Amino acid sequence: MAAGIRLYIDGTLRDGAAVDATPEQAHYLGRVMRLGRGDAVVLFNGRDGEWRAEIEDLGKRSCRLAVLGKLRDQAEAPGPWLAFAPVKKTGTDFIVQKATELGASRLMPVATANSQTARLNTERLRATAVEAAEQCERLSVPQVDDMADLEALLAAWPERRRLFVLDETGGGRPLAAAARAGENAAGGAVGFLVGPEGGFQARELDRFAKLPFIIPVMLGPRILRAETACLAALAVWQAVAGDWK
Ligand code: SAH
Prior knowledge:
Low-confidence stretches: none
Helix content: 25-40%
Bound molecules: S-adenosyl-L-homocysteine
Mean pLDDT: 94
Strand content: 25-35%
Number of strands: 13
CATH class of the largest domain: Alpha Beta
Largest sheet: 8 strands, parallel
CATH architecture of the largest domain: 3-Layer(aba) Sandwich
CATH topology of the largest domain: Alpha/beta knot
């Protein structure tokens, strides 16, 4: 087995199937990892579980893989959603990578009053999510939405899904307590909303207070960077009510 090479493939994975890697993956397998015919890799596609596969044919920009046997069933519970105001470039990449490692199932960039809604390179964020999913041995890749504005996000939010808003002004409940309470509520369908460097404006916090599915929560007495708040919120949730059991 090649040193744990794990690739996200957008093709059906079942016994005897043959799937094609992307040109970038072919380059990685051949040129970077110096693999060839017969070398084994691990594949997942977010639907069919995790499979062992072998390189059947490898060119500079193409690679055909023979799917040999299933290693793991697609048995992951869908993780929390994370809505976040994009922060300066590396910060947003950090949020996507860490949220993927922490099991988020959907990433929703949102433009808030104080967020510098600079153009978001969504394709690059999706590639970051795939890479992080491959590395952390997830069986799925989080969905990365295009940027939406806050109003649209709230209007489209499913009422059944609790939305924990990270309120740095101290107006919220400690997240661990809210998560424990939530543990007994119907289903673990939750989401988190984290504001930008400049925080939420009062009128946004007022708006949140009126929505029945929103629970303001706090992460202690210090003001965290948005990246830190995203990571900390997901970690607390997974530890208390998620899949870190
Ligand atoms: N308004 C602050 C910074 C906001 S920090 C300022 O201007 O200095 C960015 C985001 O991280 C906040 O909008 C909030 O969603 C989250 N956050 C930071 N610290 C937090 C805390 N202690 N509790 C809850 N959320 C927090």
